[in-house]
Design a protein that fits this description.
The protein is of the alpha/beta class. It contains 13 helices and 15 strands. The strands form 4 sheets. The protein has a 6-stranded mixed sheet with strand order 3-4-5-6-9-10, with helices on both faces. Strands 2-1-11-13-15 form a 5-stranded parallel sheet, sandwiched between helices. A two-stranded antiparallel ribbon has the order 7-8. α1 links the parallel β1 (about 1-5) and β2 (about 35-40). α1 (about 15-30) crosses α13. Belongs to the glycerate kinase type-1 family. InterPro entries: Glyc_kinase_flavodox-like_fold (IPR018193), Glycerate_kinase (IPR004381), Glycerate_kinase_RE-like (IPR018197), Glycerate_kinase_sf (IPR036129). GO terms for molecular function: kinase activity.
Length: about 375
């Protein structure tokens, strides 16, 4: 029997790798003869580096770079097992978890550009970028400045690489952008389909969760519109209404300026680790996430994994931290949907004991799988 375990992380609790290894422990305890392979998944947000480095036997490269508040900090990027592809997460250099007080008026993506430059100088030309969990709405001017772009105000002075400076930009010049980027493949992993500006744009949709007040959201959106118009005039093409341009506070737009392609985060991660070929040869697929509900149908990792399994007639099981409203819709993709909690329990208790709860739940499911396969074998004998 071959079992593939490919969960997302349990946000603010366990990484995808920790979830996967806990599930594996439970299945191997009950079905020691099974071949159990783990493929920690991600969708481009926090944990994407860890998932891909682990699944492809890659490595991390430690780098000092500018953090979201303009102060140098420890960061890293991943190099996949092919030793040719770099994965960079905005969460690792300009992420919300890196700051105690959220304020997108003063945060910057400058460090992203520094990480890219470092990898370029090391000879890498294939890049994957994860855009989830950003603390910025600077439309990527920080990243682009680090890469050599120039943004000047009306007096000809360089504007600071922060969100509140967008409306002050008078001149944009991309002629000095690192020429090595022209040799690169740039793929952006993001499941955010928001455009850059307006009510469905980066400021109005994500501004509040990044700490922006109502008047600041209006100001940021004006800045995004002003800056985008300047860029589009300079480039001679329209980019701001492409789905994903508003991802990560407009970093999606900045990557489009560089000629990058925006793709589904889960799809990119799965492709990089060759997940489809492994699922194709499996008997069962186990996946999960911190909370599953009706929203999980719309591009979340577990459903993406289950769709691959369904394509090859492989049975899928869902084990999540909690099941919420409308989770019944997930039965279109899964044989069974389960929560790791076994009775009345607080969120704090559940998070504290998540590893053991995962092991216990996977052992219980493994016993059922073993019984199903045993009965099927008996039926086939007759």
């Amino acid at each position: 029997m071959r079992i593939i375990i490919a969960p997302d992380s349990f946000k603010e609790c366990l990484s995808a790798r920790e979830v996967a290894l806990s599930l594996k422990k439970g299945f191997e305890a009950e079905i020691p003869s099974a071949k159990v392979d783990v493929f920690p998944m991600a969708d481009g947000g926090e944990g994407t580096i860890d998932a891909l480095v682990y699944s492809t036997s890659g490595r991390k490269v430690e780098v000092r770079a500018t953090g979201p508040l303009g102060v140098e900090t420890n960061s890293c990027y991943g190099v996949l097992g092919d030793n040719e592809t770099v994965i960079i997460e905005v969460a690792s250099i300009a992420g919300l978890q890196m700051i105690s007080e959220r304020n997108p008026m003063i945060t910057t993506s400058y460090g992203m550009g520094e990480l890219i430059n470092h990898a370029l100088n090391e000879g890498y030309r294939n890049f994957l970028f994860g855009l989830g969990g950003s603390a910025t709405i600077d439309c990527g001017i920080g990243m682009l400045q680090a890469l050599g772009a120039v943004f000047l105000d009306q007096k000809g002075a360089h504007v600071p690489p922060i969100g509140s400076a967008l409306e002050k930009i008078h001149t944009v010049d991309f002629s000095g952008v690192n020429p090595l980027l022209a040799e690169c493949e740039l793929i952006v992993a993001s499941d955010v389909e928001n455009v850059l500006c307006g009510l469905k744009g980066a400021a109005y949709v994500f501004g509040a969760q990044k700490g922006a007040k109502k008047d600041e959201i209006v100001e940021l959106d004006r800045g995004l519109q002003h800056y985008a118009a300047l860029c589009e005039k300079a480039l001679g093409k329209s980019l701001q209404n492409i789905p994903g341009a508003g991802a990560a506070g407009g970093l999606g737009f900045a990557f489009l300026v560089l000629g990058a392609k925006i793709q589904s985060g889960a799809q990119i991660v799965a492709k990089a680790m060759g997940l489809e070929q492994h699922i194709k040869a499996a008997d069962w697929v186990i996946t999960g996430e911190g909370r599953s509900d009706f929203q999980s149908v719309y591009g979340k990792v577990p459903v993406y994994v289950a769709k691959i399994a369904k394509q090859y007639h492989v049975k899928s099981l869902l084990i999540s931290g909690a099941l919420g409203d409308g989770y019944e819709q997930l039965y279109d993709y899964f044989v069974s949907c389960r929560s790791i909690t076994q009775g009345p329990i607080s969120l704090q208790e559940s998070m504290k004991n998540a590893k053991q709860l995962l092991i216990d739940s996977s052992r219980d499911l493994a016993r059922l799988i073993k019984l199903v396969d045993c009965n099927r074998t008996v039926v086939n004998l007759f």
